[in-house]
Amino acid sequence: MSRLDWKGLVPYELLEPNWRLWSFIAILVVGFWALMTFPVSQLSGYIDPFYSPTILIVPLPGAFRLTCYAYRKDYHRHLFNHPLGCANPDRGDAVSRKYTGERSGVFQLENFHRYFLYAGLAILPFFYYDFAHSLAFADSLRLGSLFLLANALALTAWTLSCHAFRHIVGGNVDCYSCVAGGGARKDIYDRQSWLNKHHEALAWISLLTIFFTDLYLRGLSAHLPIDTTLLRF
Ligand code: FES
């Protein structure tokens, strides 16, 4: 029996009642509503990462994050209950139910992850600009600036540890000694491979740093006395 419905566009996973999936969608909707309704885009020289460079382009880096392998594993397993762990005898909720992964319906968009990577790379300099802007605004290093920098570094580490980026820097080469600059390429590939081993952790850390930085700035906008000057120039 086909697991697709509505002309094959809506996968079975999206149609079955699943409180975790619908709570996740509800959190997303409330989150986006809050971002649009209560913006803190600029505050005392700080630029909120959700608005850098502008929330209007969020769909592209958002698509990059949504199609990341680290999150795919989690949302296919925990939101769609499929497939559960290999050692789990209850893999899938029905014998006839087959895991189709990125081969069915809207999940086919996951295949575009390698292209969304370019949006993820393009947006990185803006986070460093935001950090520099916060320094120049007050001619000092403040706690909030450190959070902006930590967020920029976490996002950079996550993006550069991407599996698609691994393919670009060296995964597409069969023989390093056969191509020009192969030695340097292999060196970069090895370094990226080390980063790649930590990709899943970096995916979650970078997500948390965005939310934490946003919350910190919202705390400032609520006049909480949490910011302090660490160094004057
Ligand atoms: Fe996670 Fe590319 S696989 S960002």
Keywords:
single chain, 233 residues, mainly alpha, two-stranded antiparallel ribbon, 9 helices, 6 strands, flat, binds FE2/S2 (inorganic) cluster
Task: Describe, in plain words, how this protein is organized in 3D.
The chain has 233 residues and is mainly α. The protein has one domain. The strands form 3 sheets. The chain has a two-stranded antiparallel ribbon. A hairpin with a 2-residue loop joins strand 3 and strand 4. Helix 3 packs across helix 5, helix 6 packs antiparallel against helix 9 and helix 7 runs antiparallel to helix 8. The protein is flat and about 55 Å long. It starts with a strand and ends with a strand. FE2/S2 (inorganic) cluster (FES) binds next to helix 4, helix 7 and helix 9.
Strand fraction band?
A: 5-15%
Number of strands: 6
**What gross morphology would you assign?**
flat
Bound small molecules, which ones?
FE2/S2 (inorganic) cluster
Q: Over all CA atoms, what is the radius of gyration? A: 21 Å
Distance between the termini: 69 Å
Decide which structural class fits the backbone. mainly alpha
Specify the helix fraction band. 55-70%
**Unreliable segments (pLDDT under 50, ≥5 consecutive)?**
none
What integer is the average pLDDT? 84
Strand order of the largest sheet: 1-2
Largest sheet: 2 strands, antiparallel
For the record, the count of structural domains works out to: 1
Number of helices: 9
Structure in a nutshell:
This protein has about 230 residues and is mainly α. About 55% of the residues lie in helices and about 5% in strands.
